[in-house]
Specification:
The structure holds two protein chains of two kinds.
Chain A (H helix, E strand, L loop, with lengths): L1 H16 L23 H15 L15 H9 L9 E17 L1 H7 L5 E12 L8 E9 L4 E10 L3 E14 L19 E15 L5 E22 L2 E23 L3 E20 L19 E27 L2 E28 L4 E15 L2 E13 L2 E25 L4 E26 L4 E22 L2 E21 L3 E14 L8 E14 L2 E14 L6 E14 L7 E19 L6 E20 L8 E13 L3 E15 L2 E14 L7 E13 L1
Antiparallel strand pairs in A: 1-2, 1-27, 2-3, 3-4, 4-5, 5-6, 6-7, 7-8, 8-9, 9-10, 10-11, 11-12, 11-13, 12-14, 13-14, 14-15, 15-16, 16-17, 17-18, 18-19, 19-20, 20-21, 21-22, 22-23, 23-24, 24-25, 25-26, 26-27
Helix pairs in contact in A: 2-3
Chain B lengths: L1 H19 L35 H5 L3 H7 L21 H4 L3 H6 L13 H12 L12 H4 L4 H4 L15 H9 L3 H6 L4 E2 L9 H4 L13 E2 L3 E2 L14 E2 L1 H5 L10 E2 L10 H6 L43 E2 L8
Antiparallel strand pairs in B: 1-5, 2-3, 4-6
Classes of the chains: A mainly beta, B mainly alpha.
Chain lengths: 706, 328
């Protein structure tokens, strides 16, 4: 990736040095054209330039605001039909250095939530490279952000050549650091602030999509994507009556390749795609021989102290899949639109698992102590997955439409595992074979129909119905522990309604409501008797001021006596956008959101099977805003921005998270500006005071614009 | 099933009735119907004769700024579209025949898509864009049913680059957040996907046009949730599956936008995420009317902090290749 970045920098520099060439008035291709014209390019360009040469002087009459460059094309046309202001490279680059204080408080939680460090940074780069001679390409768009060992690094490059190809690529390098002392910490009541589920990994995702002959009626396309992750962490080795936190190393990668053909006729479309993925996942847990790990148990068991003094555990997963997609839309007549798709995938994996551990352990089922264990296992799983969808829009009347949709989704996972545990100790040796067959089968279907009625040109009402049905069965043979056999089904009737109301571009409101009665559901927390509603609106008072608001609510109940589930979640939001004088001098944007969540459900205490109640509350306030103002004293286009994001919640996990920000941009010379930014991160939890942190970050640099 | 059969029968009857209606032409309209008029219409000058097309250059006379900016718009290609007979009608392809408008200079004599109903706007755009893959699934998508017109997100005549199709993560997020404010507020919580940092965008997970999956979630490898595009190590298939991951998706346990709880979980403490489902006695799970999720064995004493975070032991909570209890 670094080589690619350096190549990109050199190419940009080369393009910057190139003399601007007279460019033809060809439209840069940001989006593939939808027409199927095969007009000769030279003829159309000549026609366009001739029109520009002959007609532009006549358009000077209207007294409209014109940018200073407008006269240049008119003058230019006397000598050449091509504007001379078009350049190879345009855009901006922000480079700088970031300093950080602290963080005060918990460094690990800071890294889990923010994870910004110090050092030189490529903060942002937005560049457009245009080849006036349209040789290998018409236009290259590049967007890069947060390079320089930041936790979220991105690069997007798209290259276009009209009617020949579109190439779009995306690259992300995201750090995933997670170390929260309050999470997965069975030793918390002893004052030990360590987590036994931590991760310090880097995940890289990239995708490359090539479309050939865009705008043609037959369009082949190819795509390659890769996701990979590597890093370390902490997890636990679990044995009877104890578990031992140990270091973890992981490395996975997935490659996805697919290609297909799109057939785009005037009123018909079909896509046929074939693809495949490969996958590998390697993990290992290691504890050096001779080191003593007492685990989480603090007392002896049956007079024996349990401990781990050596571990080598590794498992390797190798998998692949093939998949097929067939999609189609059609409009056979002006009143009927049809669409349908069939999707099939068949991923499968094979796993080799090895574990060698030594210490003092207990096989609880036989009250047998042993000092070493070897566990070898091979397993495999595959899942044929069929999905289909079809629907139609029927326009019975200019004001009435009926939309129908049918969907089916069928998953069938089968697996098998075979292996053996060999236990060795002072008293006995045991060979424990492992042989399991597993299956999970899930069929889900739904059918829905909606009627939309344009009562007036401003008001649309809609109503509809959806029926959902499905089954799930899951078993492990022979039955073991929690995994045995379970069967369930879902039968759900849903009524829907909604409206949308518009008065030109000034006022718009939409709302919808949905309610269901369910005869059966898969899980205790599934939607059973639920109602969901939402209303949102936007009012543009004038060209400078816009207000908007939104309200949503979800309510779900499962009244079964041993469940008594009652859930209610509501969110209310209001925002204002103010840009007087067309955002030239001052602007303000702010949003306030209030969210509440209440959940109560019965559950069973495992140790006594007594019924208890799980209660969850969350009451949150969120404010986001940004105020911009020009600072004429510092320069013609100097701007100061201030604002940020502020979140406070009370309830089951009271939390505060503040992110104020201030930014100053001061032009230094033509095309160069000094940029400075200050951000403060403040995080705190009332119930877990030791997880709080504070940090100031100051970034300063230059913005080069061309 | 009876209700479905009745619904299908009604639908077939309606289709047949519509098919028998006379006077419908096969070809879709070439442009918005000239009779479509803005709501507060007051005629200022009577047009002389029927409307006809005048060509894009006529628009330049009064709308020079828009015309100049439009030269860089991909829709400029419509001016050269001989195949569909729209040559030199890039402006009038959306705004309708402009002869009356040129005569009277009245705004009432030209179609303004900003004042059309969303259905008419969509019909206008889909005249050309109907045959693209973005249209698949769009009809039954939330945006279409809520009458969010194409022009709500794809703005034709804005001078800023990227407003026809938002390309950068920041631009996509700003656009979506302008309506989905409550969702954007969720991303301000401490444990969230990296959207405010512009490392990801809404369209990385959601297909704004429509999708096979609920909530317009993107798919990966044909029909799997788009989460596995990045979270490949959790995709499986696993020898020992954790059924809610397969059947109800990641949002069973996680708040995918943002949460105040670690790991974006739906509850502040892990044990409640698990025990709210794993609270059925074994015989309750085996019948067709049962819920899935058996109560843990009795040695899981919740009075001990040992057993208050299930994932200390059950690490492979998304599924395991090696252990039916998801501990390896």
């Amino acid at each position: 990736m670094k080589h690619l970045l350096w190549f990109w920098v050199c190419f940009v520099a080369w393009g910057y040095q190139a003399q601007p060439q007279p460019a033809k008035p060809e439209t840069p291709q940001e989006q593939k054209p939808t027409d199927k014209a095969t007009t000769d390019k030279a003829v159309t360009e000549k026609a366009a330039t001739e029109k520009a040469a002959t007609e532009k002087p006549a358009t000077e009459k209207p007294a409209t605001e014109k940018p200073a460059g407008d006269k240049a094309p008119a003058e230019k046309t006397a000598e050449s039909p091509v504007p001379e202001t078009e350049r190879w490279v345009s855009g901006s680059i922000d480079v700088g250095y970031r300093w950080r204080t602290g963080p005060g408080g918990n460094q690990n939680v800071y890294r889990s939530v923010v994870d910004l460090g110090e050092g030189p940074k490529l903060l942002n780069a937005d560049l457009v490279i245009v080849d006036p001679k349209h040789r290998w390409f018409d236009k290259i768009d590049t967007h890069a952000a947060n390079w320089g060992d930041d936790p979220y690094t991105t690069l997007n490059v798209s290259i276009h050549k009209k009617r020949l190809y579109d190439f779009v690529s995306t690259y992300r390098n995201l750090a995933y650091f997670n170390y929260l002392p309050s999470f997965a910490n069975p030793l918390l009541d002893r004052g030990v602030l360590t987590s036994q589920r931590t991760f310090d990994t880097r995940n890289r995702m990239s995708s490359y999509d090539l479309t050939l002959l865009p705008g043609n009626w037959l369009i082949p396309y190819f795509s390659y994507g890769r996701a990979s992750g590597y890093g370390s962490g902490v997890t636990t080795l679990v044995s009877d009556q104890n578990e031992y936190p140990v270091p973890l190393r992981s490395n996975f990668s997935q490659n996805d390749m697919h290609g297909g053909l799109r057939i785009e006729m005037n009123r018909y479309h079909a896509s046929i795609e074939q693809g495949g993925t490969t996958f590998r996942d390697d993990q290992e847990l290691l504890q050096s021989p001779g080191s003593n790990n007492p685990g989480n148990r603090t007392t002896p068991y049956l007079g024996n102290t349990l401990f781990l003094d050596g571990l080598s555990q590794a498992w390797g997963v190798r998998g692949h899949s093939i998949y097929t997609r067939v999609l189609s839309t059609a409009q056979p007549s002006s009143w009927l639109s049809l669409y349908g798709q069939y999707l099939y995938a068949r991923p499968q994996n094979e796993t080799n698992y090895q574990e060698f551990s030594s210490g003092n352990f207990i096989l609880q089922s036989q009250a047998l102590f042993f000092t070493s264990q070897q566990y070898l296992l091979g397993s495999a799983a595959k899942v044929p997955h069929h999905s289909g969808q079809a629907g139609a829009e029927i326009r019975l009347h200019p004001r009435v439409r009926v939309i129908t949709n049918w969907l089916t989704d069928r998953i069938h996972v089968t697996g098998a595992a075979n292996g053996q545990k060999s236990l060795s100790g002072q008293l006995a040796q045991q060979q424990l074979p492992v042989a399991n067959e597993t299956e999970l089968r899930n069929d889900d279907n739904h059918f829905e129909a909606d009627v939309l009625w344009d009562v007036t040109s401003r008001l649309t009402l809609r109503g509809g119905y959806r029926y959902q049905w499905g089954t799930i069965s899951n078993f492990v043979l022979p039955p073991a522990g929690l995994a045995s056999q379970s069967i369930s089904e879902v039968r759900r009737n849903v009524g829907k309604g909604g409206f949308s109301y518009r008065v030109g571009s000034k006022l718009s409101m939409t709302g919808d409501i949905e309610g269901a009665g369910t005869e059966s559901a898969y899980f205790r927390t599934s939607l059973v008797r639920y109602q969901r509603g939402r209303v949102q609106g936007s009012y543009q008072a004038n060209s400078q001021l816009t207000f908007s608001a939104a309200f949503s609510a979800v309510s779900n109940q499962n009244p079964a006596p041993n469940i008594d589930y009652d859930y209610l979640g509501m969110q209310t939001s209001a925002s204002v956008l103010w840009n007087p004088a067309g955002d030239k001098r001052v602007g303000f944007q702010g949003t306030y959101t209030r969210s509440t969540m209440r959940s109560d459900i019965n559950f069973l205490e495992p140790q006594t099977l007594q019924q208890d109640r799980s209660t969850y509350r969350d009451n949150g306030h969120s404010i986001q805003g940004m105020f911009d103002v020009t600072v004429p004293r510092l320069g013609k286009q100097a701007r100061l921005s201030a604002g940020g994001s502020f979140f406070i919640s009370t309830g089951s996990r009271p939390t505060e998270y503040f992110q104020p920000i201030g930014k100053l941009i001061v032009p230094v010379t033509h095309g160069v500006a000094w940029v400075a930014e200050w951000t403060w991160y403040g995080y705190g939890e009332s119930f877990y005071m030791y997880e709080g942190f504070r940090a100031h970050l100051v970034t300063t640099g230059v913005r080069i614009t061309r | 099933m009876r209700s479905i059969s009745a619904g299908i029968a009604i639908l077939v009857i309606l289709v047949i009735a519509r098919a028998n209606a006379a006077g419908q032409k096969q070809d879709p309209p070439r442009s918005p119907a000239p009779e479509a008029k803005p709501e507060a219409e007051t005629a200022t000058a009577a047009p002389t004769g029927p409307k006809s097309y005048v060509g894009s250059e006529a628009c330049q006379a009064c709308h020079e700024d828009i015309f100049n900016a439009f030269q860089k718009d991909p829709h400029k290609a419509v001016d050269f579209d001989k195949k569909r007979g729209r040559e030199n009608q890039a402006c009038e392809g959306c705004h309708g025949p402009a002869s009356s408008h040129v005569e009277t200079t009245s705004a009432e004599e030209i179609v303004n898509p900003a004042k059309l109903s969303p259905a008419r706007v969509d019909e206008n755009c889909l005249t050309c864009h109907r045959n693209q893959p973005t249209h698949i699934g769009r009809i039954q998508s939330g945006h279409a049913k809520s009458r969010v017109a194409c022009t709500s997100c794809h703005r034709m005549h804005q001078p800023e680059a990227g407003t026809l199709v938002a390309r950068t993560a920041k631009a996509v997020n700003q656009q979506c957040a302008s309506c989905h404010q409550t969702v954007w507020a969720a991303f301000q919580r401490p444990h969230a996907h990296r959207l405010p940092q512009s490392a990801m965008s809404c369209s990385d997970c959601h297909n704004p046009h429509g999708s096979f999956l609920a909530r317009q979630i993107r798919t990966f490898a044909a029909n799997e949730p788009g989460c596995f595009n990045c979270h490949a190590n959790l995709r499986g298939p696993f020898t020992y599956e954790h059924s809610p991951v397969r059947t109800e998706g990641c949002q069973t346990c996680h708040e995918p936008h943002g949460s105040a709880n670690p790991k974006m979980l739906t509850r502040a403490e892990v044990r409640f995420v698990c025990l709210e489902c794993h609270a059925n006695l074994p015989q309750q799970t085996s019948g067709t009317a049962g819920f899935i999720g058996v109560v843990p064995p009795a040695f899981h004493d919740l009075r001990s902090p040992h057993y208050r975070n299930c994932t200390v032991c059950h690490q492979k909570i998304h599924g395991s290749h090696a252990d039916p209890n998801l501990t390896r």
